[in-house]
């Protein structure tokens, strides 16, 4: 067991040493944007754009095509989210909303359909070796990002789930620094959920 643990951490260290400058940039800006989002700070959107642009290139290079396409979607939602948060602030509307039972069912259904659809597409038309895992993570992230732009509380629950899935995937793809980033994301998503839930209760 000790030998296995030593080998695991040695692998992580080797991957970190070989990490590119672009991945470092994407990681640092990614961490900052999630931290700002958890604090409901509007600057999370422009910082997120920088991280997104870096990860478009990174994921494409590592044949995570679903996630590469997801970054392009993120780019659009970052612009929209930035606009929407500014507008909501100007209108002094309730900043955070929560899903009802019917909306929960719609979200789960959308994720299941998108996961299978994207997985099948990636399996047939790309050379990725993780089509359905990539498709599922992409689908969950897709829906989570949409909910975040609308300031829906449950976006953080989806981010927690997808972060747990992404960590072993990135280790498998030799993206150790990104795996570390998503471990930090997991903690920030948990904090974000608790903070947003507290704010939502105060205004509900």
UniProtKB/TrEMBL annotation:
It is found in: Cell membrane. The keyword Cell membrane applies. Its main location: membrane. NCBIfam families: NMN_trans_PnuC (TIGR01528). The chain crosses the membrane at residues 21-38, 45-62, 68-85, 105-122, 156-172, 179-196. It is a multi-pass membrane protein. Keywords: Cell membrane, Membrane, Transmembrane, Transmembrane helix, Transport. It comes from the Bacteria. InterPro entries: NMN_transpt_PnuC. Belongs to the nicotinamide ribonucleoside (NR) uptake permease (TC 4.B.1) family. This is Nicotinamide riboside transporter PnuC. It comes from Paradesertivirga mongoliensis. Required for nicotinamide riboside transport across the inner membrane.
């Amino acid at each position: 067991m000790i030998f296995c643990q030593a080998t695991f951490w040695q692998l992580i260290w080797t991957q970190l040493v070989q990490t590119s400058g672009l991945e470092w940039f994407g990681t640092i800006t990614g961490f900052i944007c999630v931290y700002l989002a958890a604090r409901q700070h509007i600057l999370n959107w422009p910082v997120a754009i920088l991280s997104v642009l870096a990860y478009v290139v990174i994921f494409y290079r590592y044949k995570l095509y679903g996630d590469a396409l997801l970054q392009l979607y993120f780019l659009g939602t970052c612009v929209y989210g930035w606009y929407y948060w500014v507008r909501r602030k100007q209108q002094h509307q309730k900043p955070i909303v929560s899903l009802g039972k019917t909306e929960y069912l719609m979200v789960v259904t959308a994720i299941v359909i998108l996961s299978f659809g994207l997985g099948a597409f990636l399996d047939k038309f790309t050379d990725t070796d993780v089509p359905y895992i990539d498709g599922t993570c992409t689908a969950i992230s897709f829906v989570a990002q949409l909910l975040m732009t609308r300031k829906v509380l449950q976006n953080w629950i989806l981010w927690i789930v997808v972060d747990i899935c992404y960590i072993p995937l990135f280790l498998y793809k030799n993206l150790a620094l990104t795996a570390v980033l998503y471990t930090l994301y997991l903690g920030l998503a948990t904090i974000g959920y608790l903070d947003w839930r507290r704010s939502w209760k105060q205004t509900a």
